[in-house]
Amino acid sequence: MNRLLRLAVSPCPNDTFIFGAWALGYLPPMQGTRCAFIRRDVEELNALTESPKPAAKVVKISAAQAVLAPGPWTVLNAGAAFGCGAGPKLAVPSGLGKPLKTIAVPGLRTTAATLLAGAIAQGELAGLLDADYRVTPVRYDLIAQGVRLGLYDAGLFIHETALAAGRLGLEIVFDLGRYWDKVAPGVPLPLGVIVAHDSLGPELIREADERIRDSLAFARRNPEAVRPLIKALAQEIDDAVIGEHIRAYAGDLSGDMGDAGKTALQTLARLAAQAAPRIGA
Length: 281
Prior knowledge:
Blueprint: E1 3-9, H1 13-23, E2 33-39, H2 42-48, E3 58-62, H3 63-68, E4 73-75, E5 81-83, E6 89-93, E7 100-105, H4 111-121, E8 129-137, H5 143-148, E9 154-157, E10 170-175, H6 176-183, E11 189-197, H7 202-221, H8 223-233, H9 239-249, H10 252-255, H11 258-274
Parallel strand pairs: 1-2, 1-3, 7-8, 7-9
Antiparallel strand pairs: 3-11, 4-11, 5-11, 6-9, 6-10
Helix pairs in contact: 1-7, 1-8, 7-8
């Protein structure tokens, strides 16, 4: 039997770091299974899991998508991105000096948009928003340009661009990582998780979980082996930004989320249920 297992992940540095060894062929082949990787924007990945015929059966999605629209998918223990004191950031052009009327977000299904909705519902952005503010979904790598060109008053930044707002001439006005620490002190912030379609069956799902863990372990032992791929796919190619991103979002819980990760997902689910999670939907 020679099955084809398609995996879909984002091009952000933590995903490339975690999956790089597997994608580049540094791991032994899976018995009876060929593997192929595709890369998509995170909101495209979220939408993929809502398709009746998904293009991939192992997919990186937003943690909010996993808890709000789980579907026939199993959350894996390995490969997730958690932030401890780090998270998405709302940024504006320096010196904007007016209430925010237009906000670009990286997709309405994303964890970032869910957290922003929660913060707005709890009054955390009072005084920042115009009474008639509106939210527009924009692909994450196009948000900075749109804000700098004045197409939007503010942008919600994720992945490595969240760490480079100052270099882009933008000012952070609200840090969603700090907001999470306020509403869930001591709980890691679940940003993205890996899900496997239930049709794969428990044995192949377990194999995929183990393979992700092995791939991350290889990258930690041999970071230079995966670095060229990371830089080729990243939006920010500065080594310091990439390194900070990987340290922030490919930590110990990425190898095995354990009880701490599962508790974090439950906490996010409660927040999302309370806060009209998908702004503008």
